[in-house]
Structure formats: C-alpha cells, structure tokens
Amino acid sequence: MADTAAEEPPHLELPSTSSNSTTKTASSTTNYLHPRREPFEHGLLPIPKLIFPDATQTLSHLKSTLLAADSSNRVNPVTLAGALQISIDHSRLILETLSSVLHDDSDPLVNAKTPQEIDSIGVNVFDLLVYLYIQSYKRLLPKGHKDSAAVADVWPSTSAFDGFLSALSPLQLVRSNSRRFMPSQADEEAHQLSYLQKHLGNIVSLLADCVEGEVEDSLVVSMDIFEHIGFLLYFGEKGLERSPLSQISPFFANSDPDMPAVPVPASQVLDWLLENVATALEHISERISLKENGPSSASDQDVTMADVSTSPAKALTCARGPSFIEGISKSSYLKQASDLKGSSVKVVNCHESVIYILAPLRYATVYGCSDATIVLGAVGKAVRVEHCERVHLITAAKRICIANCRECVFFLGVNQQPLMVGDNHKLQVAPYNTFYSQLEEHMNQVGIDPSINRWDEPVALGVVDPHDSLSHPAGVSDVQAESATRLDPDQYTNFLIPNWWGDEFDGSTKDNPFTLPHAYLASQQRNHKNMEEIKQILRETPLEDSRKRELSSALHVYFKDWLYGNVLL
C-alpha cells in the first residue's frame, strides 16, 4: 500500500483476551470514530531522519531513553536533538509543528510563543512518540486528470522536478474547474483510517506499559496513556463537539478522578479500536457508494460554502470538517465568522479573485489557486498554502507552511518561522499590511501575539516530500527547497479592506497591529505623503467641469489597471 514506509515496521505481539471485552460503541450509535485530520494535513515534516526503516524498534528505544532522562515525561529540543541525532533547529521545528496539531489545548506547549518558552516547557513523550510514528504516512494521490496531455501546453517543465509535480499544478486544476480530480474529504478520511488500521497495533504497544506477570510480561494501557491515542482519533459527527476517546470507551468512561481506573490489557484496547475503525470504514464506504450511485443526503456531503449557516456561531467550535470556499473566479468574496461552520477553512481552486475570510480560525488551507489575493483573518494553529501560482496571501497566523508554489507574495504576521517545502519558485515575503475592525479581537481569541512577527525568517526544507505517494527522480532527495526573498520596501503598500457592513461589526482595531520594520514604515510614509501631495494638487488645479470629468475618468482607468496588476496578480 502507498501509505507505508519503505520497510514495514514489525508488529509487536499483544497478549490475547476474550473478544467479549470489546464494546461496540460505534456500531450501536451514530457516533462514529474519525481520524484527526490536523496531524496528517499540518503535522508532517519532510525531514529524512524522521522516516525510520524500523519505526517500532527505533521509537521503543527512544521511549526508554527519553523517559529515563526526565521524570516529568517531557522532553526539550536539546535532549530530542541528541536522541535523534538531528540539529537543534530541526528539533525545535518538530516541537513547534507538534504543538500546532496537539489534541489537548490545555497542554502548556500549545501556548508557548518563543523558542525559550518551547525549550523550557518541552513536549510530552507519548505525544511525541505518536507524532514521530505517523511520519511514515503517505498522502493520498490526487485522482488522475482524464486529459493529462491537454494540460501539458499550459504547464511547461521548468525544473528537474516538474515531471512528478506537474500532476498537482494549479493550472491543471483550472482546466478541471472542480475538485473531482482531487481526493474528497471522505476518500482522505478512509485513507487515514486505513493507515491507522494497519499501524494501531504498533502504536498501542509503543505507548503501553510493560507489567511483569507470573508467567510472562504483559502490556497494559492506563487511562492517561489512552488519552494520547486521542492525538489520532476521536468520536463525533458533523456539527457536534468532538468526544475524547476516554468518554466513549467502555474502559474509562465515567471514571472517578479521585480513584484512577485500573489499566486495561493493551490487546483489549486494540481490539476495541480496530472494531470501531472497521465500522467507521464501512460507514464511509456506504457514503461514497451513495454519492457515486445516486443523490446523497446533505449529512453525507462535505461542508461547502453553499451550506454554511448565516446565524452567529461560537468561535473555535470543533464541528467536524472544514468549510470550503471553492471555484471562485473573477469575483470578490467575503466570509465572516457567522458564515462559517467550525473553525477550519479550505480555499480551493479559486482564480482571478479577491477573497476575504475575516474570522478567527484554527486551521486554514489554500490549495490550487492562481492570480488571486486571499486575506485570512487570524489563524491560531496553522496555515498551509500549496500548489498556488501568482497569489498574494495576507494573514495573521501562528505558523505557515508553503509548498510547491510559484511567483507568490506572502504578507505575514506570524509568531513562528515560515516553512518552505517542495518545489517553490520566485516567492517573496513581506510584513503584514492590512487590518479590519475585529482583527485584534480575533487574534486574541486564537492566541496570536502581535509583538512577535518572524515573517522574514523563512526555513527551507527539502524539495522532495517523503509523505507524498509520487515517484521521485533519483538523486534529488537531498536538494534543499528554494527559500523566499524579502519584498522590496519600495513595492510595499497597505491593503485596504472595504467596510461593507458599516458599524454592524464595529471593533477596536484602527491600524495594523504588527510593528513595521523601519524600511517598510518609511516606504509607507513616503507613499502616504505622495498621495496627499497629489490630492492637494488636484484640489488646487483650476479645471472646467468637462476637464474634471475627463480627469476622473482617466483616474478610474488607471486605478483599474493598478488594481488588476497589484491585487489580482
């Protein structure tokens, strides 16, 4: 299967128990088991040393080493770097990335803002083990285009890697004009569940404690350890809050906090998990079959922007699945918090448009867009931009990853270093350049610190992503991705967001909350001064009414030309 590493880790045998101990929770209710998409979509890092030939054996040894190093079961970047024989920068990057996809927002690492705080707090060893294990995951390939030859003329090969990246080019998405040639959310969920079904035995045994028995050693899982499996799986349905595994499982549900539950045999935990995974896969298969063979019900469909509610919604609710903004072309498009279901957004296949998503979000993905300006309000976990061309992206976010993009400009207010991976070309970064009235309120909600902006510290990893399922030319695995250059301050301008809704959503933000570097501030002040001088000259110039109309018409023409060149391109 495409979702395994080059060499399959051996499966650790677990002690057998009676199948009667398995609780059929999912099969008796509509509360199905689901994979957490966040680790698979935002948590994978193309660092070759994290792809272990024998993951179980390597991570079992790492577990022993790290638990012996600190009685608090937490590990800092220095210790991790030594244990994995990687650089301290890569070690810290692992912790930053892991913190953005943690399932438990109460973990202190989630709120760490500076490298010093990350070093001091460290990461839970068991969360780290699960995170490192899934680095063997292979993403699901997009479905092949029915007319691949037809797109070759609009996506010329300009690098050694285009032979295998062309299948994912944004211009191919333009021709298809839909997501039907990309994996659906149901396909991706099934792919992730299939991967977990194959590897849960290793993961459970890796987390379990070994207890000496009279005859032989046995593996058991405590409630605390069981919670860490929640990094990968949860129960819930669309529109409902996610339920932690321990609240649904027959082993630890309704446990008394003052009297910890007795550890459960690891084999019993595994049997219960696999039964629920199988039930969930069967349910997904039925949904896919209904979609392919006839009209499907609204409850089976992915959340699209046509479905979003117009009623007010709580910020950062955990409704399952992202909201999609899809196929926008040659338009201006606005969505606010009350328009979105949940707290994640995917902008897919949008072209020659200006898109505003002025809301507090946890995650955002921009995929396959071209010739567009996209404003993402405040993203508290992670942004991923992939396979885009000539896009201007403006966002305040905790972190951002940019993969396989060309000729894009990123105006960033980010608390962590921008990550560049894959086959990028001619990318530019610049400081954040806009605001809207609720921006600071949204940033506070999702935990973005305006006093920290690392927009100009991009980190470039490898061109080849070991998590995709594409074949790669020999000898390119060690090539470093092209990084981004700083935008010339003379080309830096403020981006004005129109106030369509008047005072209905009045907020306290009156200016850009991020401090501008001196060169960009000076450029901004020069532009403002020049604009005021031009306005003054126009006011003082005596013109007849007919000449004023001609001048106004000319200004409108030049403004439209500027708008097309600077906003849509």
UniProtKB/TrEMBL annotation:
Composition bias, kind Low complexity: at what positions?
16-30
Where in this protein does the record put region Disordered?
1-37
Which residue numbers delimit the C-CAP/cofactor C-like domain? 312-448
Q: Which residues cross the membrane?
A: none
Please state the protein's primary subcellular location: cytoplasm
Which cell locations does it reside in? Cytoplasm, Cytoskeleton, Microtubule organizing center, Centrosome; Cytoplasm, Cytoskeleton, Spindle pole
What domain of life does the UniProt record list for this protein's source? Eukaryota
GO CC annotation: spindle pole
> Which keywords are on file for this protein?
Cytoplasm, Cytoskeleton
Q: Which family does it belong to?
A: Belongs to the TBCC family.
The UniProt entry, under PANTHER family, shows: TBCC DOMAIN-CONTAINING PROTEIN 1 (PTHR16052)
Protein name (Swiss-Prot/TrEMBL):
TBCC domain-containing protein 1
Q: Which organism is it from?
A: Olea europaea subsp. europaea
